[in-house]
Write a structure and sequence with these properties.
This protein has 187 residues and is of the alpha+beta class. The protein contains three helices and ten strands, in the order E-E-E-E-E-E-E-H-E-E-E-H-H. It is globular, with a radius of gyration of 18 Å.
């Protein structure tokens, strides 16, 4: 039988933790811990986690949103996503909320796709990704602000979005991973 790699949770005792920077959305913390006979210190982004949604309509088109991202000075094509910033919120419920807030959609069917770490060397962020189908457009009173105020929403054939991801036209890591995983899952 062929070897199948699988990530393994491993929690080492932390000797000290300190807040390096308190941010508006996430913090930077410093942990000191023992590893292989050494005492190491690592700074990382302490992130609440997030959810992303591959929302597919009956024509196998994926809802993509175009949003400005200041850190990279670019307007990216992404999938609906958002922070797990409500204490105790279930990732699926967060996904439902974010799909409505960012794409004005509700879905009848939800299927867990995968969980990924965005940058495990520098952040403890986990992204839970779902496929949503049976979509319905909803009018609601949610007011978008900041970078969400001018979101562009568009359904794009899943195969076209995957090709854009493979060719580097879409570079948002969460969208790329989610689109490829959804494409494989639906094959």
């Amino acid at each position: 039988m062929a070897f199948v790699p699988e990530d393994e949770p491993r929690s080492l005792p932390v000797l000290t933790t300190s807040l390096v920077y308190e941010g508006a959305i996430w913090n930077v913390v410093r942990d000191t811990f023992a590893y292989n006979g050494e005492v190491l210190s690592r700074d990382y982004i302490d992130h609440t986690g997030a959810v992303a949604i591959v929302a597919l309509n009956d024509d196998d088109e994926v809802m993509m949103i175009r949003q400005y991202r200041h850190a990279i000075r670019a307007t990216n094509w992404e999938i609906p996503a958002g922070l797990l910033d409500i204490a105790g919120e279930d990732p699926l419920e967060c996904g439902k909320r974010e799909l409505l807030e960012e794409a004005d959609l509700v879905a009848k069917n939800w299927e867990f796709l995968t969980t990924l770490n965005t940058t495990p060397g520098g952040s403890n962020e986990f992204i839970h990704i779902y496929i949503a189908t049976g979509l319905e457009k909803i009018d609601h009173d949610y007011v978008r602000s900041g970078e969400e105020a001018d979101l562009e929403m568009r359904f794009i054939p899943l195969a076209t979005a995957v090709e854009a991801a493979i060719s580097g036209k879409i570079r948002n890591q969460i969208a790329v991973t989610a689109l490829l995983a959804a494409y494989v899952a639906r094959s």
